[in-house]
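Memo subject: From amino acid sequence to discrete backbone structure tokens
Keywords: amino acid chain, backbone geometry, structure tokens, three-dimensional fold.
Body of memo: The sequence and its backbone structure tokens, given next.
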Amino acid sequence: MAQPTAAEQSPDDFETVRERVPENAAENVRRNEISSTDFAGIVRRHQSAVFSIALHFLADRSAAEELAQDVFLQLHANLATMKSEDHMKFWLRKVTAHRCIDYMRRRKLPQVSLDDAPEPAAPAQSTDPFLARRLRHYVASLPEKPRLVMILRYQEDMPAEDIAEALMMPLATVKSHLQRSLALLREKVSRAIGEAAL
């Protein structure tokens, strides 16, 4: 017997279908009915944010790709604990931030002092196409935790309270990192502009 077309089905049939198909993947997770299609959708929705945090913190594309893959593997193992889409987004940011710190600790790269960093010769103007690159360079020269706080605040638009919770540090410390980092970045940019004008 042939299946009825959409026009032949009653509204009750659609209600039954709607009850069987959850609205989003988070509902599937709560029901422990996650499929590979649902997980692929979750990855597609969140991969750019996870990769972006990792790339801006690590400044190494291949390391950022590997770290993002590890974060999603960890998410897959912990899917049953996700309560909502917002919880999943917060969890991904938090795990990514901690994985970045762990990665840097394992690498143990020598820290470069901001005083030792070379100053750009050209002034930083609002029409300068390299301004964003310079700012990324300056942010990348910050110490580990202040750099991560800056990335989460200004790239991911996370409020200071959420950053404090994600990084498990006091709110006052987050605000202090933000103030000191902004002052340091302002000083570096104004010094670069001043030297170029001479």
In short: The chain has two domains: 23-109, 114-198. The chain has a mean pLDDT of 77. The chain is about 70% helix and 0% strand.
